[in-house]
Design brief:
The protein is of the alpha/beta class. Helix content is about 40%, strand content about 20%.
C-alpha cells in the first residue's frame, strides 16, 4: 500500500506541483486548500506525511501544525511547512509549532522528493538538513 501524503496549500499551482512529484515517486496524495477543513478530516485522511503552507486564509500553517500535533493520530507524523519567504525566525516558529522541517518556495523537485523519501524512511539518503540551499532546514 502506498504511503499517503497530505498537501495543504491555498495555491492550486503549488498543490499540483507537489502532487505531480509525489505521484511520480509512487505516493498517494490527498490535497486540501483549506486548513480547517483538513483538520476536520485528519482522522479519515490518516496521512503518513503532511505538507503545510505557512500562509493560508483561514489559519496560519504554524497554528494548524500545533493543532494537528494535539491529535493522537498526528503525534509522530512528519510535517513539513512551506513558506514563500525566508524569515529570520522561521526555524524557531516551525520548531515551536511541532513541524519537522520547512521548505522555502520555490524548491527543486529533486529536493522535494529526496526530503519525502528521507522523512518516510523510504531510502537512507535524502535531504542533508538543507532543503533549498540556505533557505530551508530540518527543525
Amino acid at each position: 500500500m502506498a504511503k499517503r501524503v497530505l498537501v495543504i496549500d491555498d495555491q492550486p499551482f503549488m498543490i499540483k506541483l507537489i502532487e505531480y512529484n509525489l505521484k511520480k515517486e509512487g505516493y498517494e496524495t490527498v490535497t486540501e486548500t483549506d486548513g480547517l477543513r483538513a483538520l476536520d478530516r485528519i482522522e479519515d485522511i490518516a496521512p503518513d506525511l503532511v505538507f503545510l503552507d505557512i500562509r493560508m486564509p483561514s489559519i496560519t500553517g504554524t497554528e494548524l501544525c500545533s493543532m494537528l500535533r494535539q491529535k493522537d493520530i498526528m503525534r509522530d507524523v512528519p510535517i513539513i511547512i512551506l513558506t514563500g519567504q525566508f524569515q529570520k525566525n522561521i526555524e524557531e516558529d516551525v520548531r515551536a509549532a511541532g513541524a519537522n522541517a520547512f521548505m522555502t518556495k520555490p524548491f527543486s523537485p529533486f529536493a522535494l522528493r529526496a526530503e519525502v523519501r528521507m522523512m518516510l524512511g523510504d531510502k537512507e539518503e535524502g535531504g542533508n538538513g538543507r532543503i533549498t540551499g540556505d533557505h530551508g532546514c530540518r527543525a
